[in-house]
């Protein structure tokens, strides 16, 4: 009888979430390691049913995600032949849960030291993690499972009511409904706002041929708010022909401290303000920088630390490296006596560091040629912010001047930089533009000034501004709604559902969003209550810390929720949403087409659906003839929602352009000029002076 040979397992298997990270780590670990990617979650709740046994301790029913069977088989095959398995999914609750499911699937003992995490994808961090594996953290897994179960219950119980009573395809969510409410509530504030009149008096004064502006303050030291034209004219009459004399001068040094390194929230806000990035665009670029980029002469390295964090903590090694870089490149005067330590908010999860470059001495200029445009812009933002956060204060010479005119006072403020400090590298963006303070001429008490000009203006108070993505994220963070990993997908979801619109960074609610929010406030007030949602986030944090049990937390929510559901379904009547009718006739059946909301904004559809399924994009002509066939050039949108320009004779004419064609002709060759539509504006001729991006694409 022939002998049966048994092949003993050898080698080590490392499983990460993404193929990009797998490729980076493989280069660090060598031939004894096989590195594979799970491509995110491998199991999830079924889409066709609730998937939660509410009668049996809320036990979830997980199934393999459709399309991942082949991947699962590959993982099982490799696991069978491996002497050791390391689960290296992302270092957060979601990653912990993925590792837990992988362990279940591959037969790995969850109590064995199989879990490794690293905050940055560098050789040192990965090899150190391999040396120090740990057990899977059940508390983190329970916190993720509780969130998933709660979100499923809310979504799968409320959404069918919305389908039945309002419109098919609608959805509700534990966090998305609250985010939508914030935008709708702001719209109601704007609509209810009553503007109030006020007036300003500004004077332009001169000393030694240098002019500066001063604003009306009041009478002596008493401030006067001008609310009517009559009050303003009375003061203008009183100061007519008056002598303007400096009555008080106050000088001081003012110090400004740098902003802390980025958290997920502040990175998304700043990328929105400074780069015009959406939250999703920011996170995509950040993910790529974290997972690893092939840098010239250095190989594949992760350029930033983990990008889902609400901690401001940085490691001692990172702080020391930054300070060494600053001292060598900017000078000792740009260093503080001791390393800066930033205080993390009480509710923050402190498992990870703040977002920072993995190597302080790897400047944006050094890696620019290895990065895409988005990657470079974001890396530059992260690197500059981090380096600046460890630099000395900026110091300004400030002066505040009071000027007397016949008993009435005007004030002027000026400042100049005494020491640049951290501003040499970075200054934080603002949601609102700050009034620029200019340098004043040398002013002393009793100086008599020459009046150059005087102006009065009627103004009105303004309603609160609509949210930008940056503003909404800031509000969600301050209210404790969601966590770093949820901001971007939440905004993406409510945009896709047609509850809000985004136009030039501004978020505004649609009619559908207002109707659904009103319904939610009337019948599911607890679900869209900001305080309740924040308290639930705190409970999830307590589950992660092992203080409370996940099933008990879900039970506390579910039992009263079922009663609210029953009451709401009986109370809500059918709500009809009428489509806005256009003046465009359907070219198939002759009906007037209606406006519908799709994933990328409004489009035209025939109201005769399903008999007539005709639909078309809303045509926006730009008044330019097609340079290829003479047809009309129209503005279009790509599948990803990006604006481009094309001929209305498509498909007969295939003319398209990302940049806007102009009536203006090139003075050299006579070709039509184009207006760049990206961040860098400007006109160009594609034949004579194409932009660098155009030339790169051409090559």
Describe the structure.
The protein starts with 11 loop residues before the first strand and ends with a helix. It is an alpha+beta fold and 699 residues long. It has 18 helices and 29 strands. The strands form 9 sheets. A 6-stranded antiparallel beta barrel has the order 8-9-15-14-11-16. The protein has a 4-stranded antiparallel sheet with strand order 19-20-21-22, with no helix packed on it.
Essential attributes:
single chain; 699 residues; alpha+beta; 6-stranded antiparallel β-barrel; 4-stranded antiparallel sheet; 18 helices; 23% strand; disordered N terminus; disordered C terminus
Give a short summary of the structure:
This protein has 699 residues and is of the alpha+beta class. The chain is 34% helix and 23% strand. Strands 8-9-15-14-11-16 form a six-stranded antiparallel β-barrel. A four-stranded antiparallel sheet has the order 19-20-21-22, with no helix packed on it. A four-stranded antiparallel sheet has the order 23-24-25-26, with no helix packed on it.
Q: What is the number of strand segments?
A: 29
What gyration radius follows from the Cα positions, in whole Å?
31 Å
The DSSP helix count reads 18
Structural class: alpha+beta
Tell me the major beta sheet: 6 strands, antiparallel, barrel
The coarse silhouette is globular
Share of helical residues: 25-40%
Strand order across the largest sheet? 8-9-15-14-11-16
| Residue runs with pLDDT of under 50 for 5 or more positions | 1-7, 693-699
Beta-strand content bin: 15-25%
Average pLDDT figure: 90
């Amino acid at each position: 009888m022939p002998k049966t040979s048994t092949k003993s397992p050898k080698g080590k298997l490392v499983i990460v979430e993404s193929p990009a990270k797998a490729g980076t780590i493989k280069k660090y670990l060598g031939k004894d390691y096989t590195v594979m990617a799970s491509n995110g979650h491998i199991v999830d709740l079924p889409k066709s049913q609730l998937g939660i046994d509410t009668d049996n301790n809320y036990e979830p029913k997980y199934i393999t995600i459709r399309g991942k069977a082949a991947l699962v088989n590959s993982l099982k095959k490799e696991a069978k032949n491996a002497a050791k398995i390391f689960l290296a999914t992302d270092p957060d609750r979601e990653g912990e849960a993925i590792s837990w499911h992988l362990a279940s699937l591959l037969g790995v003992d969850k109590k064995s030291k199989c879990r490794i995490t690293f905050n940055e994808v560098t050789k040192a961090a990965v090899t150190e993690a391999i040396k120090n594996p740990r057990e899977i953290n059940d508390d983190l897994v329970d916190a993720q499972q509780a969130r998933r179960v709660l979100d499923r219950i809310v979504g799968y119980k409320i959404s069918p009511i919305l389908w039945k009573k309002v419109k098919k395809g609608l959805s509700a969510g534990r966090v998305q409904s609250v985010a939508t409410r914030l935008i709708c509530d702001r719209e109601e504030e704007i609509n209810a706002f009553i503007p109030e009149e006020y007036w300003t008096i500004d004077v332009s004064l001169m000393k030694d041929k240098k002019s500066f502006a001063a604003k009306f303050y009041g009478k002596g030291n008493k401030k006067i708010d001008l609310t009517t034209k009559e009050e303003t004219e009375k003061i203008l009459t009183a100061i007519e022909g008056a002598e303007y004399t400096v009555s008080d001068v106050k000088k001081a040094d003012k110090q400004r401290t740098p902003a802390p390194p980025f958290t997920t929230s502040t990175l998304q806000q700043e990328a929105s303000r400074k780069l015009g990035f959406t939250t999703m665009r920011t996170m995509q670029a950040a993910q790529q920088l974290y997972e690893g980029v092939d840098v010239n002469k250095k190989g594949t390295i992760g350029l930033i630390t983990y990008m889902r964090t609400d901690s401001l903590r940085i490691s001692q090694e990172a702080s020391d490296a930054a300070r060494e870089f600053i001292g060598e490149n900017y000078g000792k005067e740009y260093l503080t006596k001791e390393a800066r330590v930033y205080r993390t908010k009480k509710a923050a999860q402190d498992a990870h560091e703040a977002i920072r470059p993995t190597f302080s001495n790897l400047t944006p200029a050094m890696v620019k040629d290895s990065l895409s445009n988005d990657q470079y812009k974001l890396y530059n933002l992260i690197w500059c912010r981090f380096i600046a956060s460890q630099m000395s204060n900026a110091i300004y010479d400030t002066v505040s001047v009071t000027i007397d005119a016949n008993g009435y006072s005007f004030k002027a403020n000026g400042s100049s930089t005494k020491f640049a400090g951290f501003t040499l590298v970075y200054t934080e963006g603002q949601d609102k533009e700050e009034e620029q303070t200019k340098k004043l001429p040398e002013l002393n008490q009793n100086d008599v000034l020459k009046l150059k000009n005087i102006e009065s203006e009627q103004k009105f108070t303004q309603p609160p501004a609509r949210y930008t993505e940056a503003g909404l994220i800031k509000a969600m963070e301050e209210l404790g709604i969601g966590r770093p990993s949820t901001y971007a997908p939440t905004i993406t979801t409510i945009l896709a559902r047609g509850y809000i619109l985004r136009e030039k960074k501004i978020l505004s609610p649609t009619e559908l969003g207002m109707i659904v929010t009103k319904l939610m406030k009337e019948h599911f007030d607890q679900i869209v209550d900001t305080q309740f949602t924040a308290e639930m986030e705190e409970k999830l944090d307590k589950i992660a810390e092992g203080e409370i049990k996940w099933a008990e937390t879900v039970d506390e929510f579910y039992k009263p929720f079922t009663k609210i559901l029953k009451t709401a379904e009986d109370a809500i009547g059918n709500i009809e949403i009428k489509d806005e009718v256009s003046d465009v006739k359907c070219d198939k059946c002759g009906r007037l087409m209606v406006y519908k909301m799709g994933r990328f904004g409004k489009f035209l559809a025939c109201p005769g659906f399903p008999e007539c399924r005709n639909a078309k994009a809303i045509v926006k002509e730009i008044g330019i003839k097609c340079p290829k066939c003479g047809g009309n050039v129209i503005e279009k949108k790509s599948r990803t929602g990006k604006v481009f320009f094309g001929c209305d004779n498509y498909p007969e004419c295939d003319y398209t352009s990302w940049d806007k064609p102009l009536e203006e002709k090139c003075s050299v060759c006579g070709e039509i000029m184009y207006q760049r539509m990206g961040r860098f504006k400007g006109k160009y001729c594609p034949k004579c002076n194409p932009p660098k991006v155009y030339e790169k694409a051409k090559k």
